[in-house]
């Protein structure tokens, strides 16, 4: 005779009885080819029940502002700037500037409220280098976030002060073939 055990169904992700401090990871390089690795990590963590937020600051064009996140599975929300185009220049019109600022403020709010355990801030270095998001605000955000939240920053030419606060830096480079 085989005993059958009933296993409970978890409706919320389980939390360990201890707090693990989150990491700040940076993915950078001259070639912008690291998003696949970052997204694979986000999908893997979401599949394990971790609440994940992916924020693409400079991508737009598909009506995916923070009011309309794309949901991948039960635990991954993906939001973009609610603009008609991808941002590739520091010169924005009023609507684009407002949209980017709304996205940045929304991101800070939901992270500080503890809604996510892993947050990917894609192309953040470009937004900083374009002067669209102040570096000082990003540093303050990293400092005040809930300690358990993992943050991944991506983009080329990551500012030195962000590299200084990172726990892990992955610099992607292309190997040179003879």
Question: What features would you describe in this structure?
Answer:
The longest helix is centred in the middle third of the chain and has 19 residues. It contains 5 helices and 7 strands. Strands 3-4-2-5-6-1-7 form a 7-stranded mixed beta sheet, sandwiched between helices. A hairpin with a 3-residue loop joins strand 3 and strand 4. Helix content is 30%, strand content 19%. It is globular and about 45 Å long.
How would you summarize the topology of this molecule?
Blueprint: E1 24-29, H1 35-47, E2 52-56, E3 70-72, E4 76-80, H2 94-112, E5 118-122, H3 124-129, H4 135-144, E6 150-154, H5 160-165, E7 168-172
Parallel strand pairs: 1-6, 1-7, 2-4, 2-5, 5-6
Antiparallel strand pairs: 3-4
Order of helices and strands: EHEEEHEHHEHE
Radius of gyration: 18 Å
Shape: globular
Count of DSSP strands: 7
In terms of DSSP E residues, the strand content is 15-25%
Spatial strand sequence of the major β-sheet: 3-4-2-5-6-1-7
* Approximate helicity band: 25-40%
CATH superfamily descriptor: P-loop containing nucleotide triphosphate hydrolases
Low-confidence runs: none
Largest sheet: 7 strands, mixed
Mean pLDDT: 84
What structural keywords apply?
178 residues; alpha/beta; Rossmann fold; seven-stranded mixed beta sheet; 30% helix; globular
Short structural summary:
By secondary structure, this protein is of the alpha/beta class.
